[in-house]
Amino acid sequence: MSRHIYQHQEPFVFENGRELIDLQISYEVFGELNADRSNVVWVCHALTANANVLDWWPGLFGTDDLFNPNDYYIVCANVIGSPYGSSNPLSINPATGQPYYLSFPEFTVKDLVNAHQLLAAHLDINQIEVLIGGSLGGQQALEWAASKTIAINQLIVVGTNAVHSPWGIAFNESQRLAITADRTFYANHPDGGAKGLKVARSIALLSYRNYITYDHTQRDTDDNKVNDYKAASYQNYQGEKLVKRYNAYSYFYLTKAMDSHNLARGRVSLEAALAGIDCSTLVLGVNTDILFPIDEQKFIARHIPNASYREIESSFGHDGFLIETKRLSAIIHSFLENKKEYINELV
Fold it and tell me: What's its top-level EC category (predicted)?
């Protein structure tokens, strides 16, 4: 593993026209480039993840896993807005000497992808063998493939969509309402909005899992209990866990970025944008995902010319893309080895 910081030397212009004069991108690389630079695997991470893909996607990435650093040159860049080293609302604004907080420019998935492209150019990478991402990471991967700013040989997206749904936007807005209801969010302090963030995370969990998951893992067996339920404790624990490693400002901005995802913006239509993606593509859905229902992945696969759809059975809902790594690995390995058999199957 090797962690790096790329400092962009020119102003970074966001989709909305605002600029950041000191864009910084934190990224990690695993493995070595081969002689013809044909072994690049680029990972786009999800909402609250970081650039250490071996840490948060074990079972798929690692020395004993499908994407082995001994075989591949694995790159994962921390997205703009995230608190793990890239420019974000808690970064210092050179104009004031204080953190940006809510003066940080709002950004979109297209902006995240444009930053990836800058990093790829910095690394002298002009082709990606495998571009992969799930959830917000899948949105980035699709946008990058549709933008055609780099050669992509194989695209793999999991639990994602071509445009963020009203359902997904509603979940994100409810989380932001929780954050902004915490008055400390406007106090311009690194811990601002922490109580709201805890609530926001508990809301998000309901979309990441589902009724079946909670029934299997959080059901109480004591019929006489009238308080201190396992499900309630779980919600509190998970909310506090995120507060310890994240901040409300990054979460607020990144949920807005997810809402912005729409491959049709600036293009003819969703269908046309997907039809323009010409690389071999594997689209994966989780059958119990209520945040990104499988119809969204089937839509993607139907409209990318060289795409195939595969479905993972799991009780873990949306989080299945992070948990069901054995099933993911088997399907992805088969795809990489037998692309011709996968392409243009009916969805």
Answer: transferase
Q: Which of 66, 47, 306 is nearest to 159 (CA)?
A: 47
The per-residue pLDDT of the chain, averaged, comes to 96
Query: What residues have CB less than 8 Å from 246, skipping those under 6 apart?
Result: 48, 83, 197
Query: CA-to-CA distance for 61 and 323, rounded, in angstroms?
Result: 12
Domain range annotation of the chain: 2-164+262-342, 167-259
Q: Residue 90, Cα to own-chain centre: how many angstroms?
A: 20
Task: Select from 3.30.1020.10, 1.10.1740.110, 1.10.260.30, 1.10.3720.10 the CATH code of 167-259.
Answer: 1.10.1740.110
Question: DSSP alpha helices (H): ranges in 218-265?
Answer: 230-245, 248-259
Sorted by sequence, the CB contacts under 8 Å of residue 146 that are 6+ apart come out as 263, 267, 273, 274, 276, 277
pLDDT tens, residue by residue, 79-113: 999 999 999 999 999 999 999 999 999 999 999 99
List 111, 182, 259, 289, catalytic entry: 289
Q: Was domain 2-164+262-342 assigned CATH 3.40.50.1820?
A: yes
The tens digit of pLDDT for each residue in 325-338 reads 999 999 999 999 98
Residues 259, 287 contacting (CB under 8 angstroms): no
Distance of CA 95 to the CA centre of its chain: 31
Alpha carbons within 13 A on the beta-carbon side of 190: 10
Question: Does residue 201 have a known ligand-binding role?
Answer: yes
Question: For this structure, is 8 an active site residue?
Answer: no
Q: Let me know if 289 is a catalytic residue.
A: yes
- pLDDT tens for 121-141 read 999 999 999 999 999 999 999
Rg of the chain, C-alpha, whole Å: 20
* Cβ contacts of 81 within 8 Å, gap of 6 or more: 87, 88, 89, 104, 107, 250, 253, 254, 257
For the whole model, what pTM was predicted? 0.95
Q: Residue 308 catalytic?
A: no
Strands 280-286 and 151-158: parallel
From the candidates 135, 147, 202, 250, give the one annotated as an active-site residue.
135
Residue 183 has a CB neighbour count (10 Å cut-off) of: 11
Q: Is 302 annotated as a binding residue?
A: no
